[in-house]
From TrEMBL:
InterPro entries: P-loop_NTPase, PolyP_AMP_Tfrase, PPK2-related. Gene3D superfamilies: P-loop containing nucleotide triphosphate hydrolases. Signal peptide: none annotated. This is Polyphosphate kinase-2-related domain-containing protein. It comes from the Bacteria. One of its GO terms (biological process) is polyphosphate metabolic process. Residues 11-229, 270-491 form the Polyphosphate kinase-2-related domain. It holds the Pfam family PPK2. It comes from Opitutus terrae (strain DSM 11246 / JCM 15787 / PB90-1).
Length: 493
């Protein structure tokens, strides 16, 4: 791929200055149209040390309206970043729809450097590249436009550049170290570019010897990419109500509702004395284990899903009662706000991941994409259909990092749910818990049952299994949840 770079390309000052005003005007016009079309643009600037990556980033910021641009430089990971999965630092910086994100360094940097210095095996490197392709494809499926620049220099030119930067006091701490491995970096980088040069996120290789040629070429590629996307018709959005667009994949199966939920024994219950004894023992155990996990830097993510009135909130309270408040945080998930809708649906969950030794409890979760958004038609069949694999990949990153992930579906019978609804209507301090939406959801019980079955079938993995909780008796459900958490914590410790 590097052989295709047009070596020795240059522009005179006259050619550069003649072309620049029109390019800048066209970029600003395309950026203005982008605000209306509202898709995110991710610009990755990568390449050889000394190739002028920082100068190019500065120039793009000069040419674009800064109000619609975010620039992020990725250097060594901070302590906060090292406590979370590697992609956490990138997810936090992804641009919203209608904005441009310029990334100086990216998810490519660490794998390439580690492989070139032989700190990463080739098989592990190829696995990293596969993850990158999947990550970029996921964002592209959600509408993101990728513009990836690789700035190329010959070995001779790079040496000349590094000497110049050293004389000016602008040399990076690892630049000469990396130069000693020029051939290894060239080989590894070419392999990375070849394997991640996809239709969804293609690479643009730019000969970077001449500053004017490098900058003008990058600007023209960015403009061409923006115009090509803006010329395409806007994708159809999912309906906002089932009246506009019924949820697909459900109606034809309602008459044959057979679900994994049918295997949950809802007759299981505990007497009050047994419950109180077990509750005291399990909460005391969890309290000790939570501090042990904190000392060892083991973090946990607990997510609670289930039918309306299944007892998610009361189960969460029994868990948090056992833990020191400094060690956990509860995140309640409702309909996404404007900022969250402007990003990929997983963005808001990545931002909430706990640091080392801490716990985050999610009252509802990312599974809303394949549950309520599917059933209510808020996500298109393509969106919720690909979400299963996206969620599995997300959860695998969490567990590969060493996080414990506990996923609970609290199941109950329609009859018990109806009893609890009526109780909420008649008991004053519970009346706020019942809404019209609860009754509407109940009417779609069979649709939700199918969606839950598909969710469990597709997303109960070896590394992140679902725990189906028998919820007709709240006492039994709470103990089952506490036992599951303490058993997994003990095993990890």
């Amino acid at each position: 791929m590097f052989e295709a770079a047009e070596l020795g390309q240059s522009l005179s000052v006259k050619e550069y200055e003649a072309s620049l005003p029109k390019l800048r005007a066209n970029l600003l016009q395309a950026q203005l149209e982008l605000r209306e079309r509202k898709f995110p643009v991710i610009v990755c600037v990568s390449g050889a040390d000394g190739a002028g990556k920082g100068e190019l980033v500065q120039r793009l910021n000069e040419w674009l309206d800064p109000r619609g641009v975010e620039t992020h430089a990725f250097w060594g990971a901070t302590d906060e970043e090292r406590e979370r999965p590697r992609y956490w630092r990138f997810w936090r910086t992804l641009p919203a729809r209608g904005r441009i994100g310029i990334l100086f360094g990216s998810w490519y940097t660490e794998p390439i450097v580690r492989r070139a210095l032989r700190k990463l095996k080739r098989s592990a490197f190829d696995t990293e590249l596969e993850h990158i392709v999947a990550f970029e494809q996921m964002l592209a499926d959600d509408g993101a436009l990728f513009v990836k620049f690789w700035l190329h220099l010959s070995k001779r030119e790079q040496k000349k550049r590094l000497k110049k930067l050293e004389k000016a006091g602008r040399l990076g701490p690892d630049d000469w170290k990396h130069f000693k491995h020029f051939e290894e970096f060239a080989e590894v980088s070419e392999r990375a570019l070849r394997q991640t040069n996809t239709g969804a996120a293609p690479w643009h290789l730019i000969e970077a010897t001449d500053r004017r040629y490098r900058e003008l070429t990058a600007g023209e590629i960015l403009l061409k990419s923006l115009r090509a996307r803006l010329a395409q018709p806007a994708p159809a959005t999912a309906a906002k109500s089932t009246a506009e667009k019924p949820a697909t994949g459900l109606a034809s199966r309602r008459a044959h509702v057979v679900s994994v939920l049918d295997r949950v024994d809802l007759k299981q219950k505990l007497s009050r004395p047994d419950y109180e004894a077990l509750l005291d023992a399990q909460q005391a155990k969890l309290g000790r284990l939570a501090w042990a996990a904190q000392r060892q830097g083991i973090s946990s993510v607990l997510l609670f899903e289930g039918w309306d009135a299944a007892g998610k909130g009361s189960a969460i309270r029994r868990v948090t009662q056992a833990m020191d408040p400094r060690l956990y945080r509860v995140v309640g998930i409702a309909a996404p706000n404007d900022e969250e809708r402007a990003h990929h649906y997983l963005w808001r969950f990545w931002r909430q991941l706990p640091g080392a030794g801490f716990t985050t409890l999610f009252d509802r979760s990312w599974y809303g994409r394949v549950l309520v958004e599917r059933v209510e038609g808020f996500a298109s069949p393509a969106e919720w259909g690909r979400a299963y694999q996206e969620i599995n990949a997300f959860e695998e990153q969490l567990t590969d990092h060493g996080m414990l992930l506990n996923k609970f579906w609290i199941h109950l019978s329609p009859q018990e749910q109806l009893r609890r609804f009526h109780e909420r209507q008649t008991v004053a301090y519970k009346r706020h818990k019942i809404t019209d939406e609860d009754w509407r959801n109940r009417e779609k019980w069979d649709d939700y049952k199918i969606a839950v079955n598909d969710m469990i079938a597709n997303c109960s993995t070896e590394y992140a299994p679902w725990t189906l909780v028998a919820g007709n008796d709240k006492k039994f459900a709470r103990i089952q949840i506490l036992k599951t958490i303490t058993e997994r914590l003990e095993a990890a410790l």
